[in-house]
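Schema walk-through. Below, the input block comes first and the output block second. Nothing else is stored per chain. Lengths vary across the set, and this one has 273 residues.
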Amino acid sequence: MRSLENKTLFITGASRGIGKAIALRAARDGANIAIAAKTTQPHPKLPGTILTAAKEIEEAGGQALALKTDIRFEDQVQDSVAKTVERFGSIDILVNNASAIFLAGTLGTPMKRYDLMAGVNARGTFLCSQACLPHLKNATNPHILTLSPPLHMDAKWFARHTAYTMAKFGMSMCVLGMAAEFAGDGVAVNALWPRTVIDTAAVAMLPAGIEAKNCRKPEILADAAHAILARDSRECTGNFFIDDEVLAEEGVEDFDIYAVEPGQPLLEDLFLD
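--- output ---
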């Protein structure tokens, strides 16, 4: 598998969970990581800050830049992108990982929750892509990778949580549109989604009864993302990848290594038919 050595990655929501796992995998190659996330002080219920993530990234072999960024706000995103280019000279890869989740029906979704999901998921993905694209267009083998699901326009994915589905599919529509829009510039735009529920802090936002033992670890997405980001950007764009399918293409056969508890049944994630 090719290396991401000396590549600069701008990763949203990289202070914990999947975003941090992707950052650490790239760091082991010697990549530069801009951590664009909000948490600067320890949270009573959520692990990690941009500062602790930066320390782990540098211990793993990468260079880190901790950037306090709320991706709902254009000035913060533009400032963080400018600081990344000032520090590392370029941006080669954007990972749109930051996301907000609230699984409730229409009557049970407060508008502040709707606004948060719409602002972080769909708008945040569009904004970060827009801000990074001028730099990506000048990069060698540039990629945008968005953590969003395949676009299955089936009512069953909307009926129980219309607001969340709209917000996540908004991210996926950015992938669909931008892949076509920037194909001529050689910028790859792809989506990545897990086959199973992933053991992160977001599990607490899922329905009762979902336990870590029935999940996979974030490292499966980190390894799948690494494989995608190392591919030729002009030959790999417009795809809605599933993590274990990507790794199977790379020759991985043992997926038990990604299970929180090998041998336990795994829960399939949303939006997969």
